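Exercise 3.2. Students should predict the tertiary structure of the chain below and write it as structure tokens, then compare their answer with the key that follows.

Predict this chain's 3D structure.
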Amino acid sequence: MKRALFAALLALAACDTNPLTVLPEGVFVITNATEYRIASPPQATIVTVQNRTSGPITVRRCLIRGSAVDAVGVDLVLEHEIDGAWQPIDLGFSCLTVPDAPRADVVLAPMDTTVVARIIVIQPDPLRVRVAYGVGADAPPTATATSKVFVYR
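Answer key:
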């Protein structure tokens, strides 16, 4: 009897009574590392968008000109830092999908994640990615989310 009572008290003492850590809400652009080596063969950076909101969002994966929410007028921007200022990199193409698809939008359900880009870099550079998104299914962009800086060395 004493052993059972001691075991029950020990089990209660071992329980964590602190509440679970709450993840911040919002839309987040995430990369799979903060630092990469320039290597042969090249190493890819995987860029994902996380929807930590209570409703769906529409993420643009194309470089569609004229987005009202993006300062350089595109919906997905890879930027590098030059003399302390972030500048867009001209990727030389307009969409991260097959050529005959007009757009590569994806609707993310609440608390869902999708891959938006796979980036391979061949020269050292600090980089970040900005993605435009709209609140709701098939919504035009109304806001942008920016990744943390990641570096190729």
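Discussion points: The first helix runs from residue 2 to 14. The first strand starts at residue 26 and ends at 31.
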